[in-house]
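Dear Dr. K.,

Following up on our conversation at the group meeting, I've run the structure prediction for Methylenetetrahydrofolate reductase from Sporomusa termitida. I'm pasting the input sequence below exactly as I used it, so you can double-check it against your construct before we proceed with anything downstream. Let me know if the numbering doesn't match what you have in your notebook.
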Amino acid sequence: MTVKLSFSEALADPAQLSVTWELVPGRGAREKAQEHLVKMAELAAKDPRINAITITDNPGGKSAIAAYAMAVEAKQRGIDPLVHFTSKDKNRNALESELYALGRADIQNLLVMTGDYPGAGYAGSAKPVFDFDAVHALRMITKMNAGDYSKLPATNFFAGAVVSPFKSTEAETMAQYYKLHKKLDNGAKFIITQLGYDARKFDELRKYVDSNRLAVALVGNIFVLSLPVARLMNQNLIPGCVVTDSLVDKLAAEAAQSNKKELQLLRAAKLYAVLKGLKYDGVNIGGHGLGYTEVQYIMEKGEELSADWQEIAAAEFDHPQAGGFYFFEKDQATGLNTCQPAKRSQTGSSLKQSLMDVVHGVAFDPKAPLYPVNKAIAKFVDKSWLKQPFTLAEYTTKTVTNECRFCGDCAMHELGFICPMSQCPKQQRNGACGGSRDGWCEVYPGQQKCIYVKMYEGFKGQGKEERMKSKYMAPCNWDLHRTSSWLNYFNDRDYNSSKD
Ligand code: SF4
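The predicted structure tokens came back this morning:
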């Protein structure tokens, strides 16, 4: 008989495939979506195979009831909740306050994400707020867990994050994997994949984690895909979710059949079998309006099919993106990957980055010949009437070169001289969010490249791309807003001197 384990216990048990079931709280307080969630939580609580229910936070950037409110109700019904804890729409203080609320309700499992760009709201579109990225939030949680933040007793959060192996370009794939390292370095204990249906990509992530000896539990996402949703994902209308043309064609061919829902559930069960075969530590099952009996079917059928997972992977989940990049060479026998990393492109350069590097190397780097004299000048200017004109001159220069937003805590020289404050709509300082597609930014598809794609290409030209995985970038200190970042840098006030 299966003993019901908590989410963290199940992930730690090599004999068990942890199962979480994703439910969407929806808009309103007492509507169908909330009643469905509560009812399903009650059923999930009675099933020892379901370790937690996952509760989404305003998916698609649209307002819904707060995830933690529904998590409290789920907990009362006897099931461990896994709350999507996104850093969108909230500044760091609001995030901290939410963590206290979660801690008080004894809700420990957090899936930490940056979150979707805000969509339409009351009286127009909401103001985008991205004070922290997922790495900042993970770091704050880890410090709270260690009890070395705010002098409060240690918390006990079990935090994880998301990664997408389903990127089509080398730059986006590497940006995801580099950020994965930062997430783990800052406390993520488990990783849930974004949505995709390519077994070779699931295998790639498994092998990437194993070959880098990363200590993290992997959870594969299984979404019961209907044709309308598949089309939306295919057209890049649901950020980060990848459904290829070949899969849409398959679903379209099934659409005329009377048992199309059964086929959709069977596909989900097959993916369960593949993920179990690939030695994922858990699966996260979701789908529009999914009921308990359907989740039950996916688990049972998935177990039944798991012995045949390799044939299923080859037959059902061979959906590569056109010209898509894979980190490892293909294993021709299985259609998955060998352990041999694929050759990466040799191209990539940025003239602007090279020029700015020269300037930085001469004037700003602590080892630069002009550094001591610049530091002395900055000390003098800081206390003189020159401070205001100097600040204005810096701001004007940087506005011309980088559309400066006057944050006063400039990190451009760490980020390939690309400003995340002005050129990333989510102001990400530690790596790409999950929403890019084919190199384009989630918010401006077809118009603006993701800054981390540009950054990777620039660093690659200099053979320095690995720095994208190691350098933690502290969040902006808003005390410095509208002040000179050069004076802050030389006078030891910016993020380089912060204790974070
Ligand atoms: S620039 Fe990149 S990281 Fe920033 S919002 Fe766009 S896709 Fe996300």
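Two things stood out to me. Residues 260-277 form the longest helix (18 residues). Residues 424-426, 428, 432-433, 435-436, 441-443, 450-452 surround iron/sulfur cluster (CB under 6 Å).

Best regards,
J.T.
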